[in-house]
Structures are given as structure tokens and as C-alpha cells.
Model the fold of this input.
Amino acid sequence: MKINIGIDDKDRGEIAQGLSRLLADTYSLYLKTHNFHWNVTGPMFQTLHLMFETQYTELALAVDLIAERIRALGFPAPGTYSDFARLSSIEETPGVPKATDMIRLLVEGQEAVARTARSIYPTVERVNDEPTADLLTQRLQVHEKTAWMLRSLLEE
Done:
């Protein structure tokens, strides 16, 4: 059945493409954060282990919200490692970095997701797609706050 929600097919497709990049970035950051949770060591172990768990849990819930919005717009959500690798702006981290490098890499990842979310806004605003705007606003709040909290750990 044809979708008739007040946003034409082309604009819905453009938004879904942007959300697909956001989904890939979010999933990539989830995987990196979970990896760091498992492998962090050092004097900040307990603090970082718990903080990373909170962060990857939040990211795991977010991927579902983003994918469901893509589906509501009438497009399939990407869901394979190859899709995510192609769409994500977040690079994999080989090996196991030191704890402070993990923090720095997660700040970069949080900021990358924020930039991706922000890049979708022009189309969303132009076509009055309030549900997507609301989702993006919520994601930006989480990623900017998390980046700030992580960045604070790097202060001397």
C-alpha cells in the first residue's frame, strides 16, 4: 500500500538514507563501546567498565528506535556488518587500546554520531518531519552529553 503521510517519496528516501547512516554510526559506536567495556584495564577499570556498560546499553536501545523510524518512512533498515561498514563514518579500532585512548576514541565516536544526526536536519526541517526531528534532537542530546562526560575524564 502506498505511504501517504505528507512527505513525498523522494524526501522520505533522502531522510531514510540519512537515518541509515545514523543507524550504522550508532551500531558501530555500540560495538566499539561494548568491546571497550570487555577489554578496559587499569586504575579506572571499575569506573570505565560501568560507564561503558551504561553507554552501550543506551546505544543498543537507540538502534531499534532509528531502524523503526526508517521502516515507518517506508524503507528497509540496513542490518548487516557490510551495510554498516559501508555507511558508517566510525572506523574500527584494531587491538586493545589503553584506557585513556579508549576514552578519546569514544569521544570521537560520540561526536561523529552527533555530526551525522545534525546533517539530516536540513531535509527533515524542510519537509516538516517532526517525528524524525524529535528523534534527532534526542540523539543529539545523548551524544553531546556523553562526549562531554567522557572528555571530562581526560582533563588533567
Q: What stands out?
A: The chain has a mean pLDDT of 96. The CA atoms of residues 24 and 80 lie 9 Å apart. The first helix runs from residue 9 to 39. The chain is about 75% helix and 0% strand.
